[in-house]
């Protein structure tokens, strides 16, 4: 083989520095739900805490950014680093389940996450948010965050809020569903590469 293959280690650390943001992120995908989150976007900290707990991931994020402009750059770049870390942690994906899906209710809201760790980025979010902001957090950044994750992790990520009324619940149910679906997708099955093509890039 000319390509260097790398077995899944289930953990990775990523650092990324630009003129807009500085992000250090590490994740253990077979962890215990411990989160250490230090960056100035409070709502995303709440969401990533939920993601880590519900996926039983150990997640550390330390980041700064130009939040005086708005939260956009930092949220996007944390998503990008999370996606990159997931991809690195999974290596050649030998012996993992590959697919994961969950429906998660949160009070009046029902959300769904379906994942294929296919090696090909695709992202769909179907949600009817009714407020432009959740607290101070721009609601549209929910879409931007997950899109960055899906692109960099090279996964197909299909998210939907099937119904709901409270925008905080809708976002939080999506992060819970994403965490639980990802946890399923990264489970070890003991098989080979879960693809009829024999390769998942
Ligand atoms: Mn909450």
TrEMBL record:
**SUPFAM superfamilies for this protein:** Ribosomal protein S5 domain 2-like (SSF54211)
Cellular localisation: Cytoplasm
Question: Which residue ranges does UniProt annotate as crossing the membrane?
Answer: none
Which EC numbers does the record give?
Answer: 4.2.1.19
Query: Under what name is this protein listed?
Result: Imidazoleglycerol-phosphate dehydratase
Looking at its record, which EC class is this enzyme? lyase
UniProt KW keywords: Amino-acid biosynthesis, Cytoplasm, Histidine biosynthesis, Lyase
* Biochemical pathway: Amino-acid biosynthesis; L-histidine biosynthesis; L-histidine from 5-phospho-alpha-D-ribose 1-diphosphate: step 6/9
Show the NCBIfam families listed in the entry.
PRK00951.2-1, PRK00951.2-4
| Taxonomic source organism | Alicyclobacillus vulcanalis
Instruction: Report the family membership.
Output: Belongs to the imidazoleglycerol-phosphate dehydratase family.
Gene3D superfamilies on file:
Imidazole glycerol phosphate dehydratase, domain 1 (3.30.230.40)
The organism's taxonomy opens as: Bacteria, Bacillati, Bacillota, Bacilli, Bacillales
List, alphabetically, the GO terms of the cellular component aspect.
cytoplasm
> Could you tell me what reaction this enzyme catalyses?
D-erythro-1-(imidazol-4-yl)glycerol 3-phosphate = 3-(imidazol-4-yl)-2-oxopropyl phosphate + H2O
């Amino acid at each position: 083989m000319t390509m260097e293959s790398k077995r899944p280690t289930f953990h990775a650390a990523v650092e990324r520095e630009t003129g807009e943001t500085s992000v250090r992120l590490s994740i253990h995908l077979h962890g215990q739900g411990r989160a250490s989150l230090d960056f100035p976007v409070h709502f995303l900290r709440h969401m990533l805490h939920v993601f880590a707990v519900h996926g039983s991931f150990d997640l550390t994020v330390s980041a700064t950014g130009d939040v005086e402009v708005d939260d956009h750059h930092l949220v996007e770049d944390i998503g990008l680093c999370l996606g990159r870390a997931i991809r690195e942690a999974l290596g050649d994906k030998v012996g993992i389940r590959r697919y994961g899906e969950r429906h998660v209710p949160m009070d009046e809201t029902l959300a769904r996450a379906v994942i294929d760790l296919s090696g090909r980025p695709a992202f769909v979010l179907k949600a009817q948010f009714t407020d432009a902001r959740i607290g101070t957090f721009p609601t549209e950044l929910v879409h931007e965050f997950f899109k960055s994750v899906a692109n960099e992790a090279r996964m197909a990520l299909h998210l939907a809020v099937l119904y709901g009324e409270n925008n905080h619940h809708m976002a939080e149910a999506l992060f819970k569903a994403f965490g639980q679906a990802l946890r399923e997708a990264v489970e070890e099955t003991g098989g080979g590469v879960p693809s009829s093509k024999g390769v998942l890039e």
